[in-house]
Amino acid sequence: MSEQEKTDKYISYSQLSKQSECKHLHWLESISKLKKRTANQYSAYGLALEDTLEKIFIETALGDRKEHEDQDYFHDFLEQEIELVEEIDPELLIKQYEAGTECIKNFESEFNKKFKNYELVETQKKIKKKLPHSHPLYNFIFYGIIDLVIRHNNKIIIIDYKTTNKGWSSYALQDSLKLMQFYLYKLFYLSIKGNENEDIECCYIFFNTTTQKIEIKMVPVTDDDMTWVYTKIGSFIYNAYEKLDYSRNAVCGKYCGCQDYVDAQKKLNNNTKQEGINNV
Which of 15, 77, 149, 158 is positioned for an S-S bond with 121, CB 3.0–4.6 A? Predict the structure, then answer.
């Protein structure tokens, strides 16, 4: 089969992370195509923050920023995302409006304190990079979205936003599976830009919904880290698309999300059956 005839298969950080955590979870979600868990209030909140920050950075770069509109943007984006959520907790929604408003209000001063006189490079940068891994049926392509890229003190800073209720521990900030996201982003950003000598650093910005504070953490990424994650991609392709031995429709027993996917499929099947009965 020629390269043109092969099917494109996209690989993301979340897929790599899930399969590293539990191969069966990845099989349930990506291979067997079980219905994914629907949008929830927490993901809606995170997406609303991301959209608001993107608008703030673009308007600031264009010199068209009106600070008093920032909170309005957040409220509008959150309303849009909440419309996609099936079950809404009204009390949680009120807390999210309050927390998001304060986080947006506190963001600029903390960001400028850390990255004074920064230059915006790009926001919501989409990365698509074809991988050289050979397969008889598929062309593998890495896909990801970098929340923010800036230039500061002659360095490129890759930034990812995280919403959290209690922050990340020092252990979590050294967890390779969590930091894999940055290993991938730095690896492929360098590749896309074609300048392997570019000085790139990585950074998390945490939005704490409990304290409503902003925390900025730099994350070191070495050449060894990028080599390690490249080998993980090869292992992922082998386990996910060649060694398909996770076909049992059961759960692995670990607290990883398998049960959520199986429950969602059962609920979908029951609803479909009930609709058929009602239509008779």
Answer: 149
Measured between alpha carbons, how far apart are the two ends of the chain, in Å?
Answer: 47
Per-residue H/E/C for the chain: CCCCCCEEEEECHHHHHHHHHCHHHHHHHHHCCCCCCCCCHHHHHHHHHHHHHHHHHHHHHHCCCCHHHHHHHHHHHHHHHHCCCCCCCHHHHHHHHHHHHHHHHHHHHHHHHHCCCCEEEEEEEEEEEECCCCCCCEEEEEEEEEEEEEEECCEEEEEEEEEECCCCCCCHHHCHHHHHHHHHHHHHHHHHHCCCCCCEEEEEEEEECCCCCEEEEEECCCHHHHHHHHHHHHHHHHHHHCCCCCCCCCCCCCCCCHHHHHHHHHHHHHHHHHHHHHCC
pTM for this predicted structure? 0.80
Please check the confidence at residue 13 and state whether its pLDDT lies above 60: yes
Top-confidence residue, 67 or 202: 202
User: What residue ranges define each of the domains in the chain, with the CATH number in brackets?
Assistant: 1-34+120-274 (3.90.320), 38-114 (no CATH)
Chain segment 92-111, per-residue pLDDT in tens: 999 999 999 999 999 989 99
63 pLDDT band (50/70/90 cuts)? confident
Give the chain's length. 280
Q: How many CB atoms lie within 10 A of CB 104?
A: 23
Q: Are strands 155-164 and 7-11 parallel, antiparallel or unpaired?
A: unpaired
For residues 128 and 141, is the Cβ–Cβ distance under 8 A? yes
248 has a pLDDT exceeding 50 = no
Mean pLDDT of 162-187: 89
8 Å CB contact between 187 and 229 = yes
